[in-house]
Amino acid sequence: MDIQEKIRQSLDGDLDAFNGIVRTYQEMVFNQAYRVMGEYHAAEDATQEAFISAYQKLHTYRGGSFKSWLLRIVTNACYDEFRRRKRQPVVPLNPENNHGEELESPIWLEDPAEKPEDLLQRKELSDAIQHCLNKLEIEFRTVVVLVDIQGMDYASAAEVVDRPLGTIKSRLARARGSMQECLHRFQELLPVDLRHMGEV
């Protein structure tokens, strides 16, 4: 069943169809929330709020890219959660499972085919990227995540954050420069062909 059919059935009150939409997009939505929020529990909250909002607003979807429509909702949920947490600061926690135990490797990084040392190196690189993302203001961070992590084109990213195309290009250029400068301190984690980027 394609996504448009699931949307149609969801609008007719079929919760199983909407759960199918959730299963299709939950990894993408969580990754967007995690990269923007930079904290596991905040990302969980934003993801949950995004899907609740998507269900409530599904009647407003007018066609086009459903991915963009959904990413706009989760991005707004991240902004709301970010503002809420600024009003009520919380101490960032390392990712935990349902038993309160720290996760050695969050589920979105797991690959059973990988060797332990490869997984560790990829987790360290992912943590370094997140560290540098967290240093960006949220508006710049969001654009980097949409374009460089989610793979959206500039026009789609502009649609998601409801900003002019020129603003997206400007923010992305500044954000990439900041990311490059920050990641320079983690050169040993980068692929060999990227370790000397920006050097004369």
Structural key phrases:
mainly alpha, 200 residues, 65% helix, globular, Rna Polymerase Sigma Factor, Chain: A, 8 helices, Arc Repressor Mutant, subunit A
What does this structure look like?
With 200 residues, the protein is mostly helical. The protein has 2 domains: 1-107, Rna Polymerase Sigma Factor, Chain: A (Orthogonal Bundle), CATH 1.10.1740; 111-200, Winged helix-like DNA-binding domain superfamily/Winged helix DNA-binding domain (Arc Repressor Mutant, subunit A, Orthogonal Bundle), CATH 1.10.10. Helices cover 65% and strands 0% of the residues. The protein has helices at 3-11, 15-37, 40-57, 66-87, 116-134, 138-149, 154-161, 165-183. It is globular, with a radius of gyration of 18 Å. The N and C termini lie far apart (52 Å).
